[in-house]
Design a protein that fits this description.
Blueprint: H1 5-10, E1 18-21, E2 25-29, E3 39-43, H2 55-76, E4 81-84, E5 100-104, H3 126-136
Antiparallel strand pairs: 1-2, 2-3, 3-5, 4-5
């Protein structure tokens, strides 16, 4: 297990406020929350970024993530929320162990603030790009 804060939590070296655990996934409250109920969901498999995660661990997270979202919404009374997952330094990843944030959004001030500087798709180049991505699968 990597020597990240999440690796230390998984090894029991650092305590956490556990919300959910099974053989593949652990979820716990974020100690620096953006809003009440901010929850982290991590695989027990050591992987720095989502593309490095096994299909089995990814599926385990996918099975539990909706249930955790419902539980966070019910417990906080907050129906709106963001799911955030960053991969790499340029994408603002700070802990190099795959993790998902469930961040309740109770109002405009609390929760995640997001800027979205949308561009335009180059429709002339799009077919080649779509093919390159499909071929990489």
């Amino acid at each position: 297990m990597a020597d990240t804060i999440f690796g230390k939590i998984l090894r029991g070296e650092i305590p956490c406020h556990k919300v959910y655990e099974d053989e593949k996934v652990l979820a716990f409250l974020d100690i620096m929350p953006l809003s009440k109920g901010h929850t982290l969901v991590i695989p027990k498999e050591p992987a720095e970024t989502l593309d490095q995660l096994s299909d089995e661990s990814a599926a385990a997270i996918g099975r539990v993530l909706p249930r955790l979202c419902r539980a966070v919404a019910k417990a906080t009374g907050c129906k709106d929320y963001n799911i955030l997952q960053n991969n790499g330094v340029a994408a603002h990843q700070a802990v190099f162990h795959v993790h998902f944030h469930i961040i309740p959004k109770p109002n405009d001030e609390d929760g995640l603030g997001v800027g979205w500087p949308a561009g335009k798709l180059d429709h002339a180049a799009a077919p080649a790009l779509a093919k390159a991505i499909a071929d990489a699968l």
